[in-house]
Write a structure and sequence with these properties.
The protein is mainly beta. Helix content is about 5%, strand content about 35%. A hairpin with a 6-residue loop joins strand 11 and strand 12.
Length: about 550
């Protein structure tokens, strides 16, 4: 509702004011709006939109110009549901809102819905003559819809029909919902000779019940006519109905006693054990730890009990795409968190990526395995085994040579032996091809690497690394390492060894140089004056280089 106040100063419209409005609920005495700013409308008028206005509540309104004095400072108003109160507001203060007036009329005359013609109802104004609102009661096809009955008029001057027994002239709507042609539509609002009208709710129900079958399945109706034992429902296309009938060859019967069922002894499920014990169970059972007498004992439970009285736990967890960790839960808790963990990562199909991992969140009920990256396929499995402190685990190392990643406390003496490198290493699958390495590596700070895996790297004066270039006029030489990871930061690099990148296409025996193209390798020696020349290895396969940077670096003069 808009509240519109008018201020004058010395008899002239007051402009440029910043008035405020305060609104109080008359019935409760509570202030509902306190000091809200009004908007200047021009010519001394200032407005405020009362968003929480309730037409059924009464309000006292004070508009304060703030800067004016005397009788010119304030204007007052009252608001209410009824006509005389609203007239006082409009004449005294100038609160203008057609919507409020309309709401009041609807509220006051809402029980005065009169019958119009066959297509509408009419809500009349206070004079009982002037149409105020017309409600259409037809559907989109122009068919009249069901109309509900009205209560008697509350207005003494309303003119209506004389209903037998009512005592006074009252207003009722007499729209019939009877469907004489039984097509499911009410085609007209007319008085039916059988006297069924919609003047009460029960008569509406009776009219519907009398014009439709008592039972319906989808759009088809069925009556109880012809029902008897042994008959079934069938569709009769001639009648377009569901009817009860007897069909030759069909017998409807049933049993309530389990012992009367036939075929109970038939061997229908070959995987189950027979009652007489002549065949063992052949399926696979997934059970839980037994909790009461008669519980199924699983192999996991038996293994755990036999292995140091339950001090060993093991399992196999399925990993899904984009996993970065997995939580492992024991079937039963250990006595303490002092246990060791063995883990292996298994993948069923190629390509295969390598992931490092970290163990966290160790509890007596399980632990978490965090991976170095996102799992890139849905067929990875984590095999794990834990054992309490002092318990020997299966798959333990029998010899030091079986440890694939030993941490040495001193020098490693090879004697007459050496370190075997893999000449066909297989690691991650990235960008549509496989990469891998085998050799000496460590981690360094890389500031620039646009190439990614196998980018030649040069050490800067601050100890950080950047990609090499043999182009004339550059000073990012010599190459002393190859990048084993993409991007910048604290990254893994290869100092020397075997490196594989399936996007390469060398000829075995090719001499490999640092290229004049930033961050690239080439099998063509640079020839442009001022270019750097450095041999960093030799191709031993189309996709494999034996990397050994050396320090034999020159440039073309």
């Amino acid at each position: 509702m808009w509240i519109l106040a008018y201020f004058t100063q010395d008899g002239e419209p007051a402009l440029g004011l910043s008035p405020v409005v305060t609104i109080r609920d008359v019935e409760t005495g509570n202030i509902v709006i306190s000091g809200a700013s009004m908007i200047e409308k021009g010519d001394g008028f200032y407005g405020y939109y009362f968003t929480s206005f309730n037409p059924e509540q009464n309000y006292a309104i004070i508009c304060d110009s703030v800067t004016l004095s005397g009788v010119e400072r304030y204007t007052y108003a009252a608001s209410g549901e009824y006509h005389d109160v609203l007239n006082d507001i409009e004449s005294t203060v100038g609160i203008v809102d057609l919507r409020t007036d309309l709401l009041r009329k609807v509220q006051t005359n809402r029980l005065e819905l009169f019958d119009g013609d066959t297509d509408n109802w009419i809500l009349y104004d206070d004079d009982g003559i002037t149409p105020l609102l017309t409600f259409s009661v037809s559907d989109k096809d122009g068919n009249i819809i069901v109309q509900c009955p009205n209560t008697p008029s509350k207005r003494s001057h309303a003119k209506g029909l004389s209903i037998s027994g009512s005592g006074t002239s009252e207003i009722y709507m007499r729209k019939s919902v009877y469907d004489p042609d039984n097509n499911g539509y009410v085609n007209a609002a007319e008085t039916i000779t059988d006297g069924i009208y919609t003047s009460t709710a029960i008569q509406v129900k009776n009219a519907v019940d009398n014009t439709h079958s008592a039972y319906q399945l989808g759009t088809k109706f069925v009556t109880e006519s012809g029902i008897s034992g042994g008959k079934v429902l069938t569709y009769d296309s001639n009648l377009d109905k569901l009817v009860y009938t007897t069909i030759s060859g069909i017998t409807v019967s049933g049993v309530s006693d389990h012992g009367q069922l036939i075929g109970l002894l038939d061997d229908d499920h070959k995987q189950y054990i027979l009652v007489n014990g002549s065949r063992a169970f052949t399926g696979e059972v997934e059970g839980i730890y037994p909790t009461k007498s008669g519980s199924l004992v699983t192999k996991q439970y038996v293994d755990d009990v036999l292995a140091s009285k339950g001090a060993i736990r093991y399992g196999r967890e399925h990993l899904t795409y984009n996993d970065t960790y997995i939580d492992v839960s024991f079937h039963s808790p250990l006595n303490s968190t002092d246990y060791s963990i063995l883990i292996s990562l298994e993948k069923e199909t190629s390509p295969i990526s390598e992931f490092s991992y970290t163990i966290t969140n160790k509890t007596i009920n399980g632990f978490r395995v965090n991976f170095s990256g996102y799992i890139d396929d849905n067929d990875y499995y984590l095999n794990w085994q834990v054992a309490a402190s002092g318990i020997a685990q299966g798959n333990c190392l029998g010899e030091v040579k079986d440890d694939k990643s030993p941490e040495l406390g001193g020098d490693l003496l090879l004697g007459e032996h050496g370190i075997e490198l893999d000449t066909t290493p297989s690691g991650n699958f990235i960008h549509g091809y496989t990469i891998g390495y085998s050799g000496n590596f460590s981690y360094v700070n890389v500031d620039w690497n646009d190439t990614g895996f196998a980018c030649p790297l040069h050490v800067k004066t601050n100890g950080h690394f950047e990609q090499c270039s043999a182009a004339s006029g550059t000073f990012r030489m010599p190459c002393i390492a190859l990048a084993l990871e993409e991007g910048i930061g604290y990254k893994k690099v290869l100092w020397n060894g075997i490196i594989r990148k399936d996007s390469w296409s060398w000829t075995p025996g090719d001499i490999i140089y640092v290229s004049t193209v930033d961050g690239a390798l080439t099998n063509i020696k640079p020839t442009i004056s001022g270019s750097w020349v450095q041999v960093i290895g030799i191709a031993i396969a189309a996709n494999v280089i034996n990397f050994n940077s050396g320090l034999n670096v020159g440039y073309i003069n």
